[in-house]
Specification:
Blueprint: E1 2-6, H1 10-22, E2 26-30, H2 33-42, E3 47-51, H3 59-68, E4 75-79, H4 84-92, E5 97-100, H5 105-119, E6 126-129, E7 132-135, E8 140-143, E9 146-147, H6 152-163, H7 171-178, H8 189-200, E10 206-211, E11 215-220
Parallel strand pairs: 1-2, 1-3, 3-4, 4-5
Antiparallel strand pairs: 6-7, 7-8, 8-9, 10-11
Helix pairs in contact: 2-3, 6-7, 6-8
Length: 222
Amino acid sequence: MKILIVEDNKELADWLGKALRQAQYAVDIAFDGEDAELMLKVASYSVVILDLSLPKIDGMTLLKRIRQSGEKVPVIILTANASLDGRVAGLDGGADDYLAKPFEIAELEARIRAVVRRGQDRAAPEIMVGDLRFAGSTRQFFVGGEPLALTPREHAVLEYLVMKVGTTVSKATLSESVFGFDDEADPTAIEIYVHRLRKKLEKSSAQIATLRGLGYLLRDAQ
């Protein structure tokens, strides 16, 4: 799952980026509204975390442009303005959630999970593919009831595939969902992670199938 942080406070942005990467998200950071608008045009994100007080293009203007473009990416506003009027303006402007500074990273992660579930219209935060279970509330994987040990990159690949279960995902799309702009990704990296995941899913009925020329498909092999 890939997140865009739009925050002009470099210290806060870097702290957020580090915390979310440790939580197994891929993260890009924009320090002003203009850069964020460009990044949104060339990459796909699962969530945008948006500060309102931004240079070049302010947060509310950026949010308005995002919605006018037809982009439905969930947006969580971060701001020091915790007033009722401020919250109402942000939500009416197209935001999906609103979090006042200061905040705990655990609360932000919970809100990220919630807006993603709502965006995918999933009432139950759990996905089953054969005996592979993804618990949306904790973002953990289980096979036959046992936790599945994954590296952060493996987790990111499998999470994207499980969110798109039943749909073929191209290698380029999968790579974009896993790596940020600042990551140095080898062109064969996705193939390597898929190979490792197949090894770890050998005893599971869940299977990552390769559709030649199209991409990868997570399915129940039984």
